Amino acid sequence: MSRPAYRRPEYHKINKDLFVLTYGALVAQLCKDYEKDEDVNKYLDTMGYGIGTRLIEDFLARSRVRRCHSYSEIADIIAQVAFKMYLGITPSVTCNNASRNEFSLILDKNPLAEFVEELPAGRSSLCYSNLLCGIIRGALEMVHLAADVTFLQDRLKGDSVTEIGITFLKKLDEKKYRRK
Amino acid sequence: MADAALFEFLHTEMVAELWAHDPDPSPGGQKMSLSVLEGMGFRVGQALGERLPRETLAFREELDVLKFLCKDLWVAVFQKQIDSLRTNHQGTYVLQDNSFPLLVRMASGLQYLEEAPKFLAFTCGLLRGTLSTLGIKSLVTASVAALPACKFQVVIQKA
């Protein structure tokens, strides 16, 4: 029996490209609508937030991850399960502080920017992939975790890597989690 | 497929945001938003068209191109084929999808019928863009009688 058409490698690529290309068209449209980079960044973050609040259900249904007991576990899951599942990459995770609530995801390759060689002229402060920050923030909020998520470094801006910083804002109430 | 989910979520958010962005309730305002979505779909369709496997680019006739859209493109983008293709053999084609993935989550039947066009604009542009890369100029419109079924009408523009 032949493989279903959509499993053929060339179509898989088209499907992957569809999201990346659509995202590119969206960013281009927002750049037309907004003069200031900060406004585009904010808009992307807001849209990402909206997506994240819905994506989390999809993620939990597909991945069936169990309750986490530390922020570090959560950061690992975001990098190793969620990013892998949706974007096909596995960022590395580093913890940035002693209280273990600040983490960085280091992206060697950024699929969203696959077809982008450099930022458009006059758009040097554009956080091209800011949608990702909003998605992570929205998804975390739906599981009752408040976090600040921003791009700390961006290859498109000339940095050597692309780095997303996640700062968990409230202390995880361990007692609450153990009681089940 | 998780990739497909991401596109669907992005598309839904785009429809919601681009609408809120232009709150002009008059028909003029609505048209603007629909054409923005269609324009984005067109750009993506053009780019997708350029990424299609080489063999597919040597079509013998117009009908072959449309059949390709109904089968290969639809499968690559929506994981299913178009359910029926009709033509008057004079440049007009109607592609019917009985269960269009971007409408399926919304509702069944007549509820949200008014909202449905917003969810079709991008795909109309996508079709028009892919056709454009394949050398065919067209006008694409969509209509919904009852969710989640819809029809895409492609009218080939002769030079």
From TrEMBL, chain A:
Keywords: Endoplasmic reticulum, ER-Golgi transport, Golgi apparatus, Lipoprotein, Palmitate, Transport. One of its GO terms (cellular component) is cis-Golgi network membrane. SUPFAM superfamilies: Ligand-binding domain in the NO signalling and Golgi transport (SSF111126). CDD domains: TRAPPC3_bet3 (cd14942). It comes from the Eukaryota. GO terms for biological process: endoplasmic reticulum to Golgi vesicle-mediated transport; intra-Golgi vesicle-mediated transport. Its main location: endoplasmic reticulum. Pfam families: TRAPP. It is found in: Endoplasmic reticulum; Golgi apparatus, cis-Golgi network. InterPro entries: Bet3, NO_sig/Golgi_transp_ligand-bd, TRAPP_component. PANTHER family: TRAFFICKING PROTEIN PARTICLE COMPLEX SUBUNIT 3 (PTHR13048). Belongs to the TRAPP small subunits family. BET3 subfamily. May play a role in vesicular transport from endoplasmic reticulum to Golgi. Homodimer. Component of the multisubunit TRAPP (transport protein particle) complex, which includes at least TRAPPC2, TRAPPC2L, TRAPPC3, TRAPPC3L, TRAPPC4, TRAPPC5, TRAPPC8, TRAPPC9, TRAPPC10, TRAPPC11 and TRAPPC12. This is Trafficking protein particle complex subunit. It comes from Sus scrofa. The lineage of its organism: Eukaryota, Metazoa, Chordata, Craniata, Vertebrata. The gene is TRAPPC3L.
TrEMBL record, chain B:
Keywords: Endoplasmic reticulum, ER-Golgi transport, Golgi apparatus, Phosphoprotein, Transport. This is Trafficking protein particle complex subunit 6A. Its main location: endoplasmic reticulum. Part of the multisubunit transport protein particle (TRAPP) complex. Heterodimer with TRAPPC3. The heterodimer TRAPPC3-TRAPPC6A interacts with TRAPPC2L. Interacts with TRAPPC2L. GO terms for biological process: endoplasmic reticulum to Golgi vesicle-mediated transport. It comes from the Eukaryota. Pfam families: TRAPP. One of its GO terms (cellular component) is endoplasmic reticulum. It is found in: Endoplasmic reticulum; Golgi apparatus, cis-Golgi network.
